């Protein structure tokens, strides 16, 4: 039976080949917990074998008194084992609400900014099989569709950096056993036991699901892998529709033919709308599935007037569905103001534009827009 290092090497090689990863230099997010430390040391041996440069990055959230000490511990451990390491500080005012979400966003922002600045194309994170099972159950609790229930993909892209998760099929106990075999001590995060967080409550329910219903994290992982395959297929279909039938307007809006859209499978419809809303709303996350499905059903009806979702306005104009940025100001665009804008940007006269898009363009007045042919 292959050991954990061999399993890891095989999985990362598979991911690298499938997604054509650039492997000259890779970053690893390391918190000091067992999972991320195991990832760092698995990656160290992988890098030595395949001649790759590895950099460990630790974010100090400055939310717990012991956070600085933990970051210093990781720095010392990395230095001792010849792994380049950097601590990234999240300097902030006191966080009183939404701590989990804000901390996660801050962590990713700092990690991705560092990677972009230093031209590192791949960031490895230590999400494992139990994390995947927890994510599935959390998405189920929210009523998610295929995309949400497929949970975490092994590779996603954000800010031109690929986030790589090579441990998604590995149980956390195996990571701890791996560290124990090498006499590596990890730090326990007290927040992992705090019932204020939904993920912690879900985690504590997992043993009961297994003992009473036989629902193990392995079985959830198998279901998630199947859903991931479905997600990839639907994503390809949605991408084809966007590439062939959707039009970008001035890098801030999209439109498409509602009749062609109406012919799509419902799952692909929601995916098309979700992707366009993410692009227009400049958000990393799509709206919830129930809201997307409701919007898709309404958008193809004859009496659809419009809707607001994910920081966007979805409306009908000139026999097309338009997705434009939501206008949150009280600005009213006069004919004289629009004519003045047109005099500086005559290309906008080439096509009829909905008022909401005109308003958005005018708010950016002073910047000439380039027409997307």
Describe this structure in words.
It is a single chain. By secondary structure, the protein is an alpha/beta fold. The chain has two domains: 4-127 and 165-215, Rossmann fold (3-Layer(aba) Sandwich), CATH 3.40.50; 227-363, no CATH class. Helices cover 51% and strands 14% of the residues. The chain is built from 14 helices and eleven strands. The chain has helices at residues 4-19, 34-50, 67-80, 99-117, 129-141, 146-149, 172-181, 198-213, 217-245, 258-262, 266-281, 289-299, 335-344, 355-363; strands at 25-29, 53-60, 84-89, 122-124, 155-158, 161-164, 246-249, 253-256, 307-309, 312-317, 320-325. The chain has a six-stranded mixed β-sheet with strand order 3-2-1-4-6-5, with helices on both faces. The protein has a five-stranded antiparallel β-sheet with strand order 7-8-11-10-9, sandwiched between helices. Helix 2 crosses helix 7 (172-181), helix 5 (129-141) packs across helix 8 and helix 11 crosses helix 12 (289-299). The longest helix has 29 residues, at 217-245. The radius of gyration is 24 Å and the shape is globular. The N and C termini lie far apart (56 Å). Residues 366-373 have low confidence and may be disordered.
């Amino acid at each position: 039976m292959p050991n954990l290092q061999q399993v890891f090497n095989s999985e990362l090689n598979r991911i690298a080949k499938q997604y054509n990863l650039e492997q000259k230099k890779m970053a690893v997010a390391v918190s000091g917990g067992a999972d991320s430390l195991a990832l760092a040391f698995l990656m160290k041996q992988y890098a030595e074998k395949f001649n790759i440069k590895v950099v460990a990055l630790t974010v100090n959230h400055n939310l717990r008194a012991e956070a600085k000490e933990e970051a210093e511990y990781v720095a010392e451990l990395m230095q001792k084992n010849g792994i380049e390491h950097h601590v990234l500080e999240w300097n902030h005012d006191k966080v009183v609400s939404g701590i989990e979400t804000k901390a996660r966003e801050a962590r990713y922002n700092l990690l991705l900014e560092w990677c972009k600045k230093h031209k590192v194309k791949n960031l490895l994170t230590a999400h494992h099989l139990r994390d995947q099972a927890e994510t599935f159950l959390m998405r189920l609790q929210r009523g998610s569709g295929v995309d949400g229930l497929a949970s975490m993909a092994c590779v996603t892209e954000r800010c031109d950096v690929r986030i790589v998760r090579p441990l998604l099929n590995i149980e956390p106990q195996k990571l701890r056993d791996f560290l124990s075999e090498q006499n590596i001590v990890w730090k326990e995060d007290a927040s992992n036991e705090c019932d204020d967080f939904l993920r912690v409550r879900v985690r504590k329910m997992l043993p009961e699901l297994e003992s009473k219903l036989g629902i193990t994290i392995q079985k959830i992982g198998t279901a998630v892998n199947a859903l991931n395959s479905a997600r990839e297929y639907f994503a390809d279909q949605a991408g084809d529709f966007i590439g062939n039938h959707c039009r970008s307007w001035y890098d801030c809006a999209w439109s498409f033919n509602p009749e062609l859209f109406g012919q799509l499978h419902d799952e692909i419809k929601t995916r098309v709308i979700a992707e366009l809303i993410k692009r227009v709303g400049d958000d990393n996350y799509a709206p919830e599935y129930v809201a997307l499905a409701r919007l898709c059903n309404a958008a193809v009806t004859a009496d659809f007037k419009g809707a607001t979702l994910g920081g966007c306005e979805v409306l009908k104009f000139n026999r097309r569905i338009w997705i434009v940025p939501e206008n949150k100001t009280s600005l009213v665009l006069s004919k004289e103001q629009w004519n003045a804008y047109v005099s500086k940007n005559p290309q906008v006269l080439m096509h009829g534009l909905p008022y909401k898009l005109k308003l958005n363009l005018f708010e950016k007045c002073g910047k000439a827009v380039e027409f997307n042919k």
